[in-house]
Specification:
Elements (H helix, E strand, L loop, with lengths): L5 H11 L4 H14 L3 H7 L5 H12 L2 E3 L16 H6 L2 E7 L2 E6 L8 H8 L2 E7 L1 H14 L2 H6 L9 H16 L2 E8 L4 E7 L2 E4 L8 H12 L10 E9 L2 E12 L2 E10 L14 H11 L4 E6 L6 H12 L6 E5 L10 E4 L8 H8 L6 E4 L5 H12 L3 E6 L6 H8 L4 H7 E13 L5 E4 L2 H7 L4 H4 L2 E4 L11 E12 L2 H8 L4 H11 L4 H10 L5 H7 L1
Parallel strand pairs: 1-4, 3-4, 11-15, 11-16, 12-13, 12-14, 14-15
Antiparallel strand pairs: 2-3, 5-6, 5-10, 6-7, 8-9, 9-10, 16-19, 17-18
Helix pairs in contact: 2-3, 9-10, 13-14, 16-19, 19-20
Amino acid sequence: MFEGGDGVILDLLYGEGRFDPALLAAAHARAAETGRSLADELLAADVVPRGELIEAVARALGIQYRASLPLPKPGAAPPRLDDVIARTCGLLPLGGHDGEWEIAVANPFALPSRRELERLAGGAVRLVLADPDSIGAARGNEERKESPADRIRESAETRTDDAPAIRFVNEVLAGAIRDRASDVHFEPFENEFRIRRRVDGTLRELRPAPSVAAAPAISRLKVLAGLDIAECRRPQDGRIRFTVDGRAVDLRISTLPTHDGESVVLRVLDQSAGRFRLNAIGLPAGIESALRRAIALPHGLVLVTGPTGSGKTSTLYACLDAINSPATKILTVEDPVEYEVDGPVQVSINPAAGLTFARVLRSFLRQDPDVILVGEIRDAETAHIAVQAAMSGHLVLSTLHTNDAPGAVERLVDLGVEPFLIASTVQAVLAQRLVRQVCRRCRRMAPVNGVAVRLLGEHGPCALAREMPTAVGCADCGHSGYRGRLALFEWLEMSEALRELIARRAPPETLRLSARIAGTVPLRAVAVQAALEGFTTIDEILKYT
């Protein structure tokens, strides 16, 4: 009872001075150990009578306490307050007068904001505090009073199974998955419920739904994910297993309290596409062969770099697929584990439980691994442990956020790794981007414009004389002009010359020049070639490279 209100209750009871401080402290300690609320521990130990505790909380919050509740009358509930939300938040509407609704609440510490409550109710709200058992009894009496005929006449909009919300959520998710969306956004605002989905890296907005649809839809999503439906004030994370057209799809859900309700974002993780293969992610033949050689080495550090959403995780999983075997012990630490793979031991970080990248990596070194995959090197401690693991006979695969392959060296130096350690451990770096492919059905070829002339100048007169595609838009591509995405790669393999330059702390531009001399083709040049071959547009090149 009163989850989320431990601090208020403790201050209140200490301040009243009527209760033994030692007993209060003991109950507070037990609550921390068991995870139960302080109120539950106080009542279990008979420190304070139940009625006194509820009345004291009401007094502290400045709201009325109701020891008993009347049976709600017809029309007692605001027509806009969804019954599912009322039940899961422990609310019982008692009636309305002159545009103000009186609502009994079981736990005032687990409610949406006053603004959100008034939006859901469609008017002013006056809260009264009641015993959860009293609210349950009143609701139970109300349900028993209904006849079977009453239930048959009950509209779908007010049924407790919330059929419209279920259908709405199912339709949105199924449509997003069929349209190859990578993310689905549910965003409540004061006057509308905005839904967007990210397709080929770009957000596309669906027709907005009424604002009253937000609460039941978001509650439905939280139920599917097994989240605390009554917790509306803190972010929550979870997973949903959803089936579309006989195909199982995992959805990673994240909720975020906002001014107008809870914003929910779902990441689509298609398990049927979970077994990535190096020959299927778009690698050029030469880079694929070189990458296979690098991940076959017994030790060293192989890095994949690029911004968020550039496909780094897909590449890492493809590398795992290529080296996964019963003879190889593979450990992965990710934030979180996105795809379940048979063979490797996969660990999700959990900072609240002390499971950070660095701590898990230290434990990994005592687990006799051959290969370690680190989802991301994001801090100095993780970087140092990854380099130590690579030096001590382990192959380490990981990602970094850098603009190009040579930039990985600069980033590791920024994280405090000594250049001579970088020179001796890094075996190769793969930088990548995902650009949208121009729709093959509606694309239009046109002579290069002024921007393209400047961009293509370094590629010589033959490039300037060619046409390049422009995006038009048709029904097949959702009138965006693009359909699908194309992976672009920049490969840097460590040579003796590069290792010597890194150890001597050569500036980044010197490293880039040496890499080009050794055969590294910059991402911009790779992208320009893709445009010249008709796969993408100048706009995409400028946006992503």
